Request: fold
Amino acid sequence: MKLATLNNNTRDGQLVVVSRDLSQYIAVPEIAPTLQAALDNWQQLEPLLEEVYLGLNQGILLQALPFEQSQCESPLPRAYQWADGSAYVNHVELVRKARGAEIPESFWTDPLMYQGGSDTFLAPHAPIVMESEQWGIDFEGEVAVITDDVPMGRVQSKLTELFDF
Reply:
C-alpha cells in the first residue's frame, strides 16, 4: 500500500492513498485526515486503507485524481520525535573534517544514534531556505522507518530486529 501526505495548507497535510504506479490518488478524510491519525489507529484503519488501495489499482474508484509528487509534504510534516541512526561513518568523517575535527576511533565500531523532535520537516520538493549559503549546506538522504510504540531504551534493538544488522 502507498500513502502520501498532500499539501492542503494545514500543518499536517492531507492523507491520500496513491496507486501502485504513482499516477493517481484518492483522499480518504472519512478514514483518517492525516497520516498521524492513521498511525494512531493503525490496527483499525489499515484494512480500510488497504481496501481503497486495492480499488484504486483496479480502476474502480471514479473519484481518483492525477497524482503529482511535487504537491506532497513530508509523510509526517510534524513528527512527534525521531531517532536518527547516524551509522554512515563516512558522512560523519566528512562533516568533522570540514570542521577541522578528528573522528573518534570508537565511531567506527559503536553505532551512533540520537533522538530529536521536529517542528516541521521540509517537503521533498521544497527549497532549502538559508540565510546564507556560506554557512554550508549539508544534504543527506534519509530513510524513515515508522514503527508502533517502542519502549524506552529499545530503539536500537527494534532497528536491529527490523533490518537484521
